[in-house]
């Protein structure tokens, strides 16, 4: 297949994947809205180590987040998210599923697990449908990946090895 045609197909597939992932976000937002969990606006959901949790995201979510997020300094530690500034998310529209679904409200825990499971199953289905790989890791793994477009990149923190960021989606090229 000529290179130009192959590239066009790849771009079209990337657009399809992006659209599908955004549809998953919209469904998750609607499910969370219907559940109506309480938010104390404490900002603790973005301070991972302090509150004893880890934000895992997929490569799909990382790409959408990093396409739209403001500049940040590397390395990023596992402790918190660099996009939380003065208690607010500065990447709100592009935030990953965990940020959309996670709330501290204890009465929402069961529903939160269900919404998470459902959304992740849909993301995995997108990966299967488009023949991409499935890569799922803590947020800072993706934020510390080498980024040629980001001049301050200095590699990962000392706790975790860097991962290589790839364009959305993680395509297993078989030639062309
Ligand atoms: S992307 Fe936004 S909501 Fe998610 S952890 Fe970072 S600051 Fe918090």
Describe it for me?
By secondary structure, this protein is mainly alpha-helical. The chain has one domain. The chain contains five helices and four strands. The chain has helices at residues 3-35, 59-68, 97-101, 109-130, 139-143; strands spanning 56-58, 84-85, 88-89, 136-138. Strands 1-4 form a two-stranded antiparallel sheet. A two-stranded antiparallel ribbon has the order 2-3. The longest helix has 33 residues, at 3-35. The model is unreliable at 149-166 and 169-176 (pLDDT under 50). Bound molecules: iron/sulfur cluster (SF4). Residues 45-46, 55, 81, 83-84, 89, 91, 95, 99 line the site of iron/sulfur cluster (SF4). Residues 45-46, 55, 81, 83-84, 89, 91, 95, 99 line the site of iron/sulfur cluster.
- Beta-strand content estimate: 5-15%
Order of strands, main sheet, comes to 1-4
Morphology call = globular
Oligomer description: single chain
- The poorly predicted ranges are 149-166, 169-176
Task: Give the topology string: H per helix, E per strand.
Answer: HEHEEHHEH
Major sheet size, sense and barrel closure: 2 strands, antiparallel
What compounds are bound to the protein?
iron/sulfur cluster
Number of helices: 5
The domain tally reads 1
Helix content: 40-55%
From the N-terminal CA to the C-terminal CA, the straight-line distance is 6 Å
């Amino acid at each position: 297949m000529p290179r130009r045609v192959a590239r066009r197909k790849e771009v079209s597939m990337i657009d399809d994947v992006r659209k599908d992932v955004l549809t998953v976000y919209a469904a998750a937002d609607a499910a969370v809205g219907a559940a109506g969990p309480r938010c104390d606006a404490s900002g603790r959901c973005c301070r991972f180590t302090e509150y004893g949790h880890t934000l895992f995201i997929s490569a799909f979510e990382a790409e959408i987040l990093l396409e739209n997020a403001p500049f940040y300094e590397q390395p990023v530690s596992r402790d918190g998210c660099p996009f939380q500034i003065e208690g607010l998310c500065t990447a709100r529209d592009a935030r990953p599923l965990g940020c959309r679904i996670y709330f501290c409200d204890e009465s929402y825990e069961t529903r939160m697990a269900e919404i998470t499971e459902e959304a992740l199953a849909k993301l995995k289905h997108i990966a299967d449908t488009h023949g991409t790989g499935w890569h799922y890791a803590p947020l800072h793994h993706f934020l510390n990946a080498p980024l040629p477009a980001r001049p301050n990149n200095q590699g990962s923190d000392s706790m975790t090895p860097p991962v290589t960021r790839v364009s959305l989606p993680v395509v297993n090229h078989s030639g062309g």
